[in-house]
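User: Could you check the structure of this?
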Amino acid sequence: MTHPPSRRLPAEPARPASVPDNLTLWYDTPAADWETQALPIGNGPLGAKVFGGVATEQIQFNEKTLWTGGPGSPGYDFGNWKTPRPGAIARVREQIDRDGTMTPEAVAAELGRPKTGFGAYQTFGDLFFDFADAPHTPTAYRRELSLRDAVARVTYSADGVTYTREYFAGNPGNVIVGRLAADRGGAVSFTLRHTSPRDDKTVTASGGRLTIRGALADNSMRFEAQIQVINQGGTRTDAGDTIIVSGADSVVFVLSAGTDYCGDYPTYRGPDPHAKVTAAVDAAASTSYDQLKQAHLADYHALFDRVTLDIGQGTPAIPTDELRRAYTGGDSADDRALEALMFAYGRYLLISSSRENDLLPANLQGVWNNSTSPPWSADYHLNINLQMNYWPAEQTNLDETTRPYDRYITAMVAPGAETAREMYGARGWVVNNETNPFGFTGVHDWATAFWFPEAAAWVSRQLFDRYRFTGDVDYLRNTAYPVIKGAAEFWLDFLHTDPRDGTLVVSPSYSPEHGDFSAGASMSQQIVREVFTNALAAAQKLGVDESFREEVRAKLAELDPGIRIGSWGQLQEWKSDRDSQTDDHRHLSHLYALHPGNQIVAGTPEAEAAKVSLLARGDGGTGWSKAWKINFWARLLDGDHALTMLGEQIKTSTLDNLWDTHPPFQIDGNFGATAGIAEMLVQSQHGYVHVLPALPSAWKNGSFSGLRARGDVTVDAVWRNGTADTITVHPGKTGPITVKSGFIAGRCRVYDEKGHEVGPHRDGDTLTWHATAGTAYTIKNEAAVSRRTGVSPPSRPCPCRTR
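Assistant: Sure, the predicted structure tokens are below.
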């Protein structure tokens, strides 16, 4: 960069990048690698990765709907069989009935088919800012991502000049915004260019606006991005497919992008994106940088600030990559800081990759992808991955992030109903192991990952769980119930009578990515039992479909429950007892009933069997597998082992930018870890609010606020020496509320927000009372206060009524 002898500019009003806080990822070198080092920003539809280079800044960006495949791609047919296969499923069932199992390869030969036109998520390309005369030896370099503000920053100094860059992805207006500045006038000069690995576009510069426009060769999907450059001082020159800025005091750029994708089956096409993209960039370009930033901060803070977590963390004095490498899971404030950062990061990433105005939910990589052929197409895997993405949404008070998930699953019903009729001869709807944005509900031929008709039932549980968290009956009626009912109807028609004992089982059944096909694998049965139970509860709540309810009740009575304790005390993965004590497979599908399901309760023989299975599988696995194990151990009320699993994920399955790695990068592990931490602090799957159910001993003192429980309850808590001091619940509905926590068995009292004492019913370590919506109730641990202060509370009769 050149350094003209001009005026010193005033300092930025924003928080200086050199002042760290404990919810900031920061580094003292630029990123050299997209996957492991560059920092992500996003607003739901748009995402970007910031590298922070000195001589050249690289910003790779995405728009979530830019996909190859689907309609327009040669041979696309939603994954359905191209011609009828009468008797194919019956033949597979007969062989399994006869032999007990069938290899995945044999089943795929009968029921699979090549995948055609499935497609893959695409990068939109990279922006490069090539800086003139960049310094070779800058000082005080810092690259950071503030999770409190969802703002990425780069700062460094050279020759007495401090250079600052700031980037954010604003959901209001759907734009990515950047500001490049220096504290000496005229010191900002660069050339802006765009690159893409595809040759399917034109790039033009006019009026300081770079326009990237084209159509994918595979499916003719139209796409467009526009980047407006606004310089303060200096000159700006359009130069073919680049923009040159010279001698500016500061420069702001605004970017928006879109495609002609829409979520409507069967065409999945809408209007050309040009008008919408132009309007977004025009609106942002006519708004000041400070106004754009304030709108972004107000929008983001309204979501992120709902939850706080203090587990004794400090503010690390070392860069985040060093912090991760130094992590031991011990008692240091730095270790607590990284654990708290992981919790916050999962919430940040969900806000950044799934918002109300999204056409698609977060995929295997959220919204970020730098490739034309990403791992697993960066698609939607439905044998755990998409579901795990949304585990933290309700628990950590981010309900709005589930809107694109709801729309996506609802839109899957129409193609899924066609697949159910054509391939399975069943009512309702179905989808299998993985899908894309174009209604791919059929199958392919990868033997260990092509068949999973239980997926429709599993993805529907998020909708019913959202109803359980919110109590929104209109949502249940209009959105959740039609999806859940259709998923249940499929299984009313497609269950098989097991000749071994006459129960109804899933056949062919495959425990995801593990072993042979069989009849009645545990996960299959647990999922079907759950969708029947949820459909029945929803229909009863709505007072509809009595004949459907009767049909579901009858099937439930005959259904194999899929929960069995085996010969060495384990929870069986299959209906026959053939689990190996030396098997350390990453999937723990047979524990579905423990988590995310609620059919297994801690302290029961089934829970003890789940623990035996977990111990046998060990603490290893892929990133997402470790994240699932955090949740399992939390559900077993073992906070120390849950924290051990979080530590294993941090140490061996987390990259320098704190992204989860399978390997390679998969974002579900980030979301699963955040959900697991929430499960350590609040659980509500069994009809009561259990506070601090699995608190690790390393988290001696702390607090949280804003976590959510089913029943429309928000929860805060403060604890000391591993025991709650106070628990405050904020019910959103009027009616009975039950709160469980270990200290409740001792001396405690309940007060409303006006200080009036409430007389709850006590049953061991639970309290139940009639709550009023909008009133905060605080349970005070008087025994703990007495021990700490040496002062006993005034002697008064306890209003609790024991039963």
